[in-house]
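Hi R.,

Here's the chain you asked about this morning:
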Amino acid sequence: MKELIVRDIYLIRKNLLITFGLFIGFFSMGLICILSAKYGNIAKYAFDRELINEVLEVSTAFGIVAGVILGTAVEHIYILINKDYKCGWHEYLKASGIRPEILVGVKYIMVVIIDIICLLTGIGGCQLLKALSGSDKGLLIKGAYAAQEGMIILVWFTSILLIIGGYFSALEFAYKGKNNVKTDLIKFLPIIIFYIAIIIVFIILEQNEEESRKLLVELFNKMQNVTVLYIVPIVTSIVVTVICYLISVRIVKKEGKRV
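And the predicted structure, written out as tokens:
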């Protein structure tokens, strides 16, 4: 298994470096904003202190965006599954006697490892910018958890990406790397439905602004706890990933029976 993991890392190394490079780029922009607001041109020529504070607050957003971009690295794995089918590597491994649990497990282990590394690196970069800026205000999240805004957003986002990575990987195994309108529709249909549902909810909420505001405030207050903010998305993403892994193993086993 170790050899297969090393092989996969080698094949996607350039893609991973590009993704990490984008992370460094956005992180650097946030760092430059902080240094300029504290010691550079913004500190020297700003009209008032409020402008400097706003720059320091916004600078942490670069850390969040950098972490979000880094999290997208999981896509390289299910793209690799697609390429393995097309070049015949998948069939070669099956013919070599590699068990489906290992063949599929390597890819899912890679998805999880990359997701964890990206999450920890993204949170580390985001929290570093927040510490350097000295800002404890949240751009989106207000209240007691404002200081943890970057961590919360990245935990939820990387959890969603882990679910997507497992789901897309299972589809690649199911359709043997084939790309057509049908497979693309099945891949993105749940995402489209999710966004449509959000739009519908917003339209409904706009019909009664006062009641909607009370509902949102109540919902937000209930979410202000560690279990909902951190444990729920992480556990959910792990459970879904395990389910996708088991489904993928079964798919590959059926391939062997047909052969």
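The two ends are 23 Å apart (CA to CA).

Let me know if you need anything else.
M.
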